Amino acid sequence: MQKNKRHDDAYFMRLALDEAAKGSGSAWPNPMVGAVVVKGGKVIATGFHKKPGKPHAEVNALAHLTVGQLKNAVVYVTLEPCCHLNKRTPPCANFLINAGVKSLVVAMRDPNENVSGLGIRQLRRAGVKVKVGVLEKEARALNEKYIYVMEHRSTFVALKLAMSLDAKIATSSGESKWITGVKSRKQVHVLRSQYDAVLTSSETVLKDDPELSVRLVKGKQPFRVILDRHLKTNCNAKVYRDRYVVVFATIGVNKAKLAQFTRKGIEVICLPEHEYRLKNIIKLLYKRSIFSLLIEAGGTLASSFLKEKCVHKVYFFYAPKLLGAEAKSGIGPLEIGALSKAVTFHNVSIQRFAEDFMIEASL
What we know:
5-stranded mixed β-sheet; alpha/beta
């Protein structure tokens, strides 16, 4: 394989992070993990975790290497090797020890309480030299969804909006298709495939009749969550095309309307009015193993999620258009009276999609 010009740990860990990123959209809810095996300054093998139940990155990287090839080699891995048995694949710490690995560089500890620090300790006790913390910031950014779920035991929530340059999502008459271009819309489908579920409001269903599906790219179809407090939507809307959907309404909705949904096999969860809160709904989704959620809705629901501090990441797509003050805003009132209270983002990055651009940022 190719000889690298630089021989520092950061260089090889970047290669491992590139490997890990190949699992984007398929490894979830497992973390994306990459591994690189280096000997004499040369990369002799690489691997990444493809999907749950399949071999981990370390196994894929070492699969075709002999004991002789591994002698004096260094293994770079983006996440602490696992060491527990309550999963579908054998522990990677044992695998590395049995393979004869003597030197390991790890980007970050695994926040999973079944692993955190234990894998590294097991390796060191077996005589493996382990270095931890190389490109840890980059490794954490790659797996921010996984890390959040492990550390908070709650669903990771992202907000997606497509807007004009003056942050409008529709004209004053309500026209919104399409503000952004084809490449931006394709990227939205990529994002949907990377989240367990997509959530929208009854207003969006009534106005746009969206499918909220992955069609423009290959990828996993997300579960669909509809917030319809008074059950105003039609059970024949596109979003209700199958049973891979749940509706959150309140107790006391029209019984005849509820029966229509029930006959079609659509699950409707009716909550007491005082429990119909975003944080409560997110907790219920987490209990259903929905660990990542993408919000696609209008300005009112977007601002509600932001005001209740339920958003952890945003994807704001902007088209080179102006719609004016009379158009509909992408973000509703946030009741911010001082700049010190402004919603502030970090880890901001920008991508171009033809004439559009997308701002990706964390909160």
